[in-house]
Amino acid sequence: MKRATGGTPGAALLALAALVLFACPAPHPAPPPDQPPPGPEPSPSWLEEPAPPVEQAVAVVAPVEAGFTFCCGSEQFRMEIQCGEMLKRCYENKRGRWRQTYGRHCKEKLGESCYLELCEAKCP
What we know:
4-stranded antiparallel beta sheet; about 20% strand; rod-shaped; alpha+beta; 4 helices
């Protein structure tokens, strides 16, 4: 017995599947409703609030040499005094280690007030 399509059953199924797929076009989605343009992104709350003031603590700096007291300094140079003899020592930070150097370097880098006034004020 011959079928009305004149072909094989597999071909008929293929033709039917193609007819179903291509006969009914897929509905196109509706265009999105008009929306206002996006505004600026909200910033995090920590950016909007001012930072609290930082309290600077007075750090007690250990002297390099025993018997001396730290007077003043920076990360590169520091001045110390030995109150009994009023000896002053200047140190320079080289590769993470404090090394004694000439006092004129501390005078140049830290200022005369550090060299004279602040050091002598540390001694009673």
